[in-house]
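Re: [ENG-882] Designed sequences occasionally contain unexpected residues at chain ends

Forwarding the minimal case from QA. Structure tokens:
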């Protein structure tokens, strides 16, 4: 009898393990389907609208008077019809920009659109109008919020909770949201790291509310274009000099650019020419669509809450030229996004002899433009090592090599006075090597290398404990 009970328990555990594996596989396949669907949407309208619209600025005064915001003529249906005229398939509205003025009916702060002379929920009107016109609904949200002092060296647990509460409102009260474009994280101008406000906590919070909602982190372009870091979609802000490689991109991607001269409306816009339509279509939208990249064109409504006539005409002309969105049946193979906290950042490092000034610390300095380089005169088998202050659990190592300097790796970790091999599944994506394995606990990690081109070059090494 005891043996039967034991056997039953074992079978139950094995069954649960199999179910968990199936669930994980289904989630990954669902994400890939959502990424494919997004790429196939092809072309959409970014809509920067908010307090900056009324200050002739792209960043408004974080304490601007609520009395400034008033647009009794606002017509989100006009925006939707304008998008359709260009053969766009979705919209993406700025719900809150960096200065921290929410344009929805939020309960998290009194500094919001409902307490202005306008007094209407812009997010609701936008979502209703676009959905009514058969267009998908996406939202933009800034992590940086200078009104609430959600900025470097000021972030508290209450700030993190406010972000979660605001995202809960946006993902609960406005129907299906196909994607959330997040800005103000890990950028040189915001300086809010993925640890200051924990990216994985926010990411999984979003997924818990709407599992089908893609997360697009606008500043993920700092990472090489070979793999997805902190974003379901590789995102490129063209106006910030981030340009996708039309020849080499193999990731689901998004590129954005304003039709007008700036993201938010300026008083000069009605009399200032917009970007040249043929160039937008033939040099950006169509070739980008041909490189697994969705194109998001920003159109800024004016102070009346309407799109200017010159922008409306341009959108109609775009629609005459842009007829067919992409129709990929599948995307190239790629690994799921890296989401977790990078435990390697600025940890203590050591290595075999380095080449001149390219020291071991450059391999974990959060800068892909610098590298540790082995000295070819030292050894045919260089090594690089990282030590934590205390033992940590981890299950993923991501190595970004220098261009044209690949190596073969043997990975080991140090625990309780001994070195153990890391038995990892290796996936190569361009110059990025991703190693995934069962969780281990250790105080050190060592990379033993055999360079293929004379010397080993490590641009960045990341160590993560990803949720499974």
């Amino acid at each position: 009898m005891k043996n039967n009970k034991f056997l039953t328990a074992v079978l139950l555990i094995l069954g649960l393990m199999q179910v968990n594996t199936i669930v994980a596989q289904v989630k990954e396949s669902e994400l890939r389907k959502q990424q494919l669907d997004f790429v196939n949407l092809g072309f959409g309208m970014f809509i920067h609208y908010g307090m900056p619209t009324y200050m002739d600025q792209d960043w408004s005064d974080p304490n601007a008077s609520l009395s400034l915001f008033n647009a009794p003529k606002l017509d989100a249906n006009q925006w939707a019809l304008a998008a359709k005229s260009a053969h766009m398939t979705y919209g993406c509205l700025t719900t809150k920009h960096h200065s921290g003025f929410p344009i929805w009916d939020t309960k998290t702060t009194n500094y919001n659109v409902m307490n202005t002379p306008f007094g209407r929920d812009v997010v609701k009107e936008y979502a209703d109008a676009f959905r009514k016109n058969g267009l998908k609904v996406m939202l933009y949200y800034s992590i940086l919020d200078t009104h609430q002092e959600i900025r470097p060296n000021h972030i508290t647990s209450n700030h993190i909770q406010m972000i979660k509460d605001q995202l809960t409102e946006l993902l609960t009260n406005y129907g299906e949201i196909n994607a959330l474009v997040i800005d103000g994280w890990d950028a040189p101008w915001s300086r809010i790291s993925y640890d200051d406000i924990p990216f994985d906590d926010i990411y999984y919070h979003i997924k818990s509310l709407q599992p089908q909602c893609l997360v697009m982190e606008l500043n993920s372009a700092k990472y090489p274009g070979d793999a997805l870091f902190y974003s379901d979609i590789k995102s490129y802000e063209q106006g910030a000099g981030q340009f996708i490689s039309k020849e080499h991109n193999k990731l689901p991607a998004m590129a954005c650019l304003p039709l007008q001269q700036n993201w938010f409306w300026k008083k000069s816009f009605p009399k200032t020419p917009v970007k040249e339509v043929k160039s937008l279509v033939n040099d950006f939208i169509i070739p980008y669509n041909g490189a697994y990249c969705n194109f998001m064109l920003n159109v800024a409504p004016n102070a009346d809450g309407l799109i200017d006539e010159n922008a409306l005409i341009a959108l109609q002309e775009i629609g005459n030229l842009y007829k067919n969105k992409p129709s990929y049946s599948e995307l190239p193979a790629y690994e799921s996004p890296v989401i977790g906290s990078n435990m390697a950042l600025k940890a203590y490092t050591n290595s075999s002899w380095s080449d001149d000034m390219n020291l071991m610390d450059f391999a974990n300095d959060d800068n892909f433009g610098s590298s540790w380089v082995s000295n070819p005169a030292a050894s045919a088998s260089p090594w690089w090592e990282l030590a934590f202050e205390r033992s940590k659990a981890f299950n993923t190592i991501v190595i970004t090599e220098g261009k044209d300097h690949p190596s073969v790796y043997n990975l080991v970790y140090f625990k309780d006075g001994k070195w153990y091999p890391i038995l990892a599944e290796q996936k190569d994506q361009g110059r990025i090597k991703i190693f995934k394995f069962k969780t281990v606990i250790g105080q050190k990690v060592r990379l033993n290398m055999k360079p293929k081109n004379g010397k080993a070059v490590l641009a960045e090494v990341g160590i993560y404990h990803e949720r499974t």
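QA comment: On inspection the terminal residues look reasonable. The two ends are 36 Å apart (CA to CA). Proposing we downgrade this to a documentation issue.
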